[in-house]
Amino acid sequence: MKESLGATGLLLNEPLLWEKGKKGRCGFSLPRRDVEPCPLDEALTRQGLDFPDLSEVDVVRHYTRLAQWNFGVDTGMYPLGSCTMKYSPKTNEKQASLPGFTGAHPLLPSGLSQGALKMMFEFEQYLDEITGMHATTLQPAAGAHGELTGMLIIYAFHKKQGAQRSKIIVPDTAHGTNPASVSLCGFRPVPVTSNEQGILSVEAVAEIMDQDTAGIMVTNPNTLGLFEENIQKIAQIVHAKGGLVYCDGANMNAVMGVVKMGDIGIDVMQLNLHKTFSTPHGGGGPGSGPVSVAKHLEPFLPVPRVVEENGAYILAEDYPDSIGKISAFHGAFGVIIKAYSYIRSMGPENLKKASQLAVLNANYIKERLKGTLHLPYDRPCMHECVFSDKHQAAQKIATLDMAKRLMDYGFHPPTVYFPLVVPGAIMVEPTETESKEDIDQFIEAFKAIANEAKEDPDLLHDAPKSCKVKRLDEVTAARKPCLAG
Amino acid sequence: MIYLPHTDEDIFSMLQVLGVDNLDDLFSTVPEDCRFTGDLNLPEALSEWELNDHMSTLSNTMAVSPEYKGFVGAGSYEHFIPASVSYLLGRSEFVTSYTPYQPEMSQGTLQAIYEYQTLAARLLGMEVATASHYDGATALAEALLMAVRITKQQKVAISSLIHPLYRRVVQTYFAPTGYEVVELPYLNAGVTDATGLDGMDDLAAVAIQSPNFFGCIENLQVLGQKAHDKKSLFVVSFTEALAYGLLKSPGTHGADIVGGEGQSLGIPSSFGGPALGILASGKKHMRSLPGRLVGKTKDLDGKTGFVLTLATREQHIRREKATSNICTNNSLSALAAAMYMASVGGAGIRKLAQLNHDKAEYLKTELKNAGFGIPFHSPTFNEFVVEFPSGFETTHKRLIEKNIIAGLCLAPYYPELANHYLLCVTETRSKNDMDALVREVKS
Amino acid sequence: MKEISEIHLPDDVRYAEDHEWARLEGGKVRIGLDDYAQDQLGDIVFVELPQVGDTFKQGEEFATVESVKAVCECYLPVSGKIIAVNTALEESPELVNTSPYGDGWFVEVNPGDLSEMENLMTHVACMEKLKGAA
Fold this sequence. Notes:
The structure holds 3 protein chains of 3 kinds.
Chain A: H1 56-68, H2 90-96, H3 99-102, H4 114-131, E1 135-137, H5 143-160, E2 167-171, H6 177-184, E3 188-192, H7 202-208, E4 213-219, H8 231-240, E5 244-248, E6 268-270, E7 291-293, E8 305-309, E9 312-316, H9 333-369, E10 385-387, H10 399-408, E11 415-416, E12 426-428, H11 436-455, H12 458-461, H13 474-479
Parallel strand pairs in A: 2-3, 2-4, 4-5, 5-6
Antiparallel strand pairs in A: 1-7, 6-7, 8-9, 10-12, 11-12
Chain B: H1 8-18, H2 48-59, E1 69-70, H3 83-89, H4 92-95, H5 107-124, E2 128-129, H6 136-151, E3 155-159, H7 164-174, E4 180-184, E5 203-209, H8 220-229, E6 233-237, E7 257-261, E8 277-281, E9 294-298, E10 304-308, H9 315-318, H10 331-369, E11 383-387, H11 392-401, E12 404-405, E13 408-409, E14 420-424, H12 431-442
Parallel strand pairs in B: 1-12, 3-4, 3-5, 5-6, 6-7
Antiparallel strand pairs in B: 2-8, 7-8, 9-10, 11-14, 13-14
Helix pairs in contact in B: 3-10, 5-10, 6-7, 10-12
Chain C: E1 14-15, E2 20-25, E3 28-33, H1 35-41, E4 44-48, E5 55-56, E6 61-67, E7 71-75, E8 80-85, H2 88-91, H3 95-98, E9 107-111, H4 116-119, H5 123-133
Antiparallel strand pairs in C: 1-2, 2-3, 3-9, 4-6, 5-8, 6-7, 8-9
């Protein structure tokens, strides 16, 4: 076997910002003063501000050392199910940092912002094409924000019809943001259970769909990595009783160029640019969650909308049925640039190829690890597959232990303990940017760990050993929260 | 394709393992009638070099510094960002990592965000700050929803001098909830008129922005007292975070929750996003806070470490009963703000804020001396309102042709304020820039 | 986690379906969470209790218990008015784990209808149910 990816190295300790520095130091070149001082009334000004005093060297060394404690996609494979941790092309970063974009003020007359507006207009069209929907808004700043936008659109639609419906059907496999978005919008989530094959059945939905249900919120492909095969019939049932179908498009990476959501009964959906469209995750954000809708929902989209008029682009506000505004300005423009660049770099054939290879990688892992890890749904998966820790229960090894040990092998663990319908779930999403040799190395690592579980389980219980810290006391952190220094 | 590493050989051998003939067969579980069999109608792929050209062309159409001298703030501010901050923010271990759910390999992000939480809390005079929200508008909306949850009251009063676009976001968030939003008018002095509160009861929150949309500094002490007299929570918002490098913090004035915008702290305008929603409260309300929180703890060896904590508030555990639906936040923006605050320091930020104030005062005085009306006499920070003569739109357009953007017209937001313009001066505008502006508007 | 046989179910309390216990003490009823529930939840980090003076019907949600990764709603086993809450749980939520029937108590209730106690399970019935479900 090749040498393990995980090694050890020199990691430096680094204190908190306020534990270093010296009074009088500054890391900011103060601009020249060319006007007279104009003191404010003392009653308005603060006494002082307890910030650390650091030189530029202090700041650069601080964050360089902190960065070295982190693991990113650029470090190694990061197979987090549901997150699509694909490689972020560096040219996208370059485009987003062009001064014409970074320096742009969002409220200037549109004649002064044509490049940005043109890009947004085109990008909306690209997303319409990929999703098969009719119109798109780029205003939501994250997937969950997009879900809320979608729910608000559904609410507004029914309100316009004169009906106040109170419920939304949410599958048991749904991501936590789904029921939370439903609640934020004043709806009550009504659960529906997936069948033994891990997908929604027509009967289960038909049983609960009624005139008081505003719609259903599906994820397709779902969080088990499976295509919701009955989606068209389910959409028909919901539509027949006047409801709408929302699709959480977080898993769009499985089906670009293969399925158009607008053609299979979806009325409204959000995309996650930081997942499917390669924008980097930034340690938790920023993301972007554009929402695409079918024609009958277009009037409800947030404003302003980018509109083409006589060869130029303007921002139009005159949409009386619009839900209003969901962000102060136009959305996460700096993120949108990166996704736009990605689509322009990939082109239509490579986007489809990306989905095909994402599905290939996931099925390959499923096939090669199914002997080692328990596979609750032994059927073809899409871009992610779900295992459980059932086989390791006899050795008193849990999913958590295997995840922690994977770090010592040089991999970020997959998503664990989600979806909730699989106890001890291990959700693996390699994405298409992982090569066969990296995936083979991941598979070997997992097999080695399963072996260690039998031969020397303490290696797992005590893992990780090679990171900046060992396992952390999350109980005390929650009992006695220390949230600021 | 350079981002797709699979060779034909790789694909072939992997398909063999699966016992499948070709890539299309991998989609056997997608029913025929769900399949799209055509080609996506998108432009052909560009090479990296063609993309550079294309994006440069788009970028060059934008009216930005240094060619243009902008005097517009209104929620998006031009400030200097040190090269060190941009450089450090490019570290791929920060940029390409995910939410730190596996803390052992994310200590970099976790310590950095703990530091951000601390500095943001200190800036605002509050006890706890979250790990970030999308922007100031959504942070304010979340702050108000939080107040409703805590007090169990169903009405909020918000100042009409809160940023008009923030108020629209609040209305959108509140539309399906059945909660009532009441707007407080403003006085001739350019600050909030809170007398209407006397007749109100059952308020969850009173929300004030300071400095407000007109750039005026509100009397938070008095307003906070009024809010508390009404047994309501006092929510303070802001669009220009730099102001608190100099001004008394919302916390010292009794703010219960603060929800505002941190873009001024090391984040470029970027056509309005990504931004940085800053949300903070006292410890007593921390369990009602939406969004992620990083906490300090120890590992098995007793070494200090950091974890996401109080996660039971959040959507992945509490689901429909969560304090919010937020998952992805604006972590990298928070990191930029922390780097900025660490670089500028306590003395530095005060000097910088003072410089902002003084430059704006200079322009205000020059315009006043040139005969233009300054309608609101309350003290301002780095923005102020000018009343130009009727027909100023023509002058405004002429100035744009000279690459000067002379403020934001207020009429679309406040129809009673025709010919009133909101001007902003930050440390990025020189005395020469301001003199040129005055010269041009006078002629 | 414990084996079913290791679960401690004292005989001086009655048990509700979702693992709250109730003990009659003089005219009032003391209520908490049983050993099975605390064991399943793991380390308890926070308990949200009602206010003194609140009233609930039997089966109404009156408290929530949090571990690091889970939240559990608690339902009042007998109707009544809350006359005392265990404020010690604010500083020391771990008492629910270490002493579920003693110092880890949740509330004391002035019962509305004492006959409701009869509807609750005895320790024998509760153990049978646990074994049956296993």
